[in-house]
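Example record

One chain of 140 residues, shown exactly as stored in the release files.
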Amino acid sequence: MRWLRRWPGREVPGEDWHYLPPAQPAGREQMRVTRVDGYDFAWLDRQVCEACRTDFVIAVRVTDEYQGRGYAGRMLRYALRGREDYAWTTTVQKAMGEVFFRRTSRSTGVQFGDGRKPLLCPHMRAAPRPARNGPAGTRR
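Predicted structure tokens for this chain:
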């Protein structure tokens, strides 16, 4: 995967922050954090429709050895910028994900839905699904 843009101001020695914008309106976009050797250890996959003001968090993953360092929260807060009033939903969560989204809702004031039924607008439903490049923690 070729990343189109790196996040300015996110440079930390030994890691790179990447953003892959959607290929079309209402399409999926990704944020990833990688070590300089290419190892993906944090990943946010989401779909957003600017026209309908809806945002669907498909996945937030951080590999075990990097959990508890704030990567998931920082990626999600970056995604929230200027979209705090959108309708946000997520997929069904495991216990750790439920705790994460509850805490993030409290700290940001944004509700992420109940995780049972994602809110997808017609534009999001019509957008083609890109092939996934593997979970966080894979080497390129």
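Notes: Residues 80 and 110 are 9 Å apart (CA to CA).
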